[in-house]
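User: Show me a protein chain along with its predicted structure.
Assistant: Here is one chain, sequence first, then structure tokens.
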Amino acid sequence: MLLQKDYKFWFCTGSQDLYGEECLQHVAEHSAIIVERLNQSGILPFEVVLKPTLITNEVIRRTFNEANTDDSCAGVIVWCHTFSPAKSWILGLQEYRKPLLHLHTQFNQEIPYDTIDMDFMNENQAAHGDREWGHMVTRMGIERKVVVGHWSDERVQKKIASWMRTAIGIIESSHVRVMRVADNMRNVAVTEGDKVEAQLKFGWEVDAYPVNEIAQCVEAVSVSDVNALVDEYYEKYDILLEGRDPAEFRRHVAVQAQIELGFERFLQEKNYQAIVTHFGDLGSLKQLPGLAIQRLEEKGYGFGAEGDWKVAAMVRIMKLMTAGMKDAKGTSMLEDYTYNLVPGKEGILQAHMLEICPSIADGPISIKCQPLTMGDREDPARLVFTAKEGKGIATSLVDLGNRFRLIINDVECKKTEKPMPKLPVATNFWTPMPSLEVGAEAWIYAGGAHHTAFTYDLTAEQMGDWAAAMGIEAVFIDKDTTIRQFRNELRWNSVYYR
């Protein structure tokens, strides 16, 4: 499953010819040094490519259109070294369609007090050249990210790196295709949504297939391929028989191996990167997909339970945004299950029937085979583990009828106070910020779902920037949230997005 492509980001410097060729030569030299140092920093996850200095309307327009058509270009970074008349950028900006970052910097970090003269002042004009450019982008209503500071500052470089991952989420959103195996759960509101509007806003294609069409692909998997994958399972995971006959246990595990192989081949053949299932419509499948889905998620596929295609698409996007990240802690679909309301120990137990991604696991991962009342099929095998501790974000994309809203909640993941030996599923346990009481209250006022797309590896700012680029509402629940302020924000947003 291809998660990380060889994307690049273009570095475009704005200037003009008022101060002569020598000045333009310095501009080009300075830009080249900045790009070289950014690439050498080891902080940026993708390469920055220097483009010739942009001066005229024609060159600016052509460069932006070349960026549009270059599949390897994931976005453009703009810096106005000297004064660049912003009307020259209008046509290029009107036709540009990819993520945009405005790097408000200058080549020198400190004013050269002893030598500064008017030649230096004329050449190093980002303090007002960037403001001229920023005015035009604002007037045109173009969404962009602004990063301020010296280009050599690690803090600035980390901000650029963070935005690059957001840009990948923006670019890749239009490539997300979700395969719906059956429909969502009957009478459930939050897993519904306008699929046409989702394609208009996010570029997602959300298609339905009869369950038995994919079941035929599962049935076509050879015994030898299934046995080879089962052997891999037994080598990789702890096997918890818990009194079951070993041969019978292995047969149940083999069903999941067959589902994993069949589903993945079907997804690859049809070019889908995310999938939803529903326990109420399993057709000829022998088990509810459990271990199989967990493995597919770990490979980078998005997943949503009970037909929740919005969660499936968001999990896929967040996996793309975190691909290749050093020391990544994981991304998964999760569901709010039950509370711990003991004072000082408040939190929400996160789990699902089967399908939590093992990328978030901490410690050993085991295979269990347990009965499941939903689905009316044989006992499904599943991976069981507890999740890592640490900070993360839980997101919920909801359709409010007249708009989409992305709810983003900072959470603190913890270990449960005691083990849960009778609970045969993967679990996470977190306290939402700023507290369970305020976090849950705000979540409910915002209309948040019980399914979430969760990650340890992205920030609320990154997901908020993604939402802004998509042209949708985003609301944040964090350490500073108060219910009065939050409810007022929802009221103001309802007017803005009407």
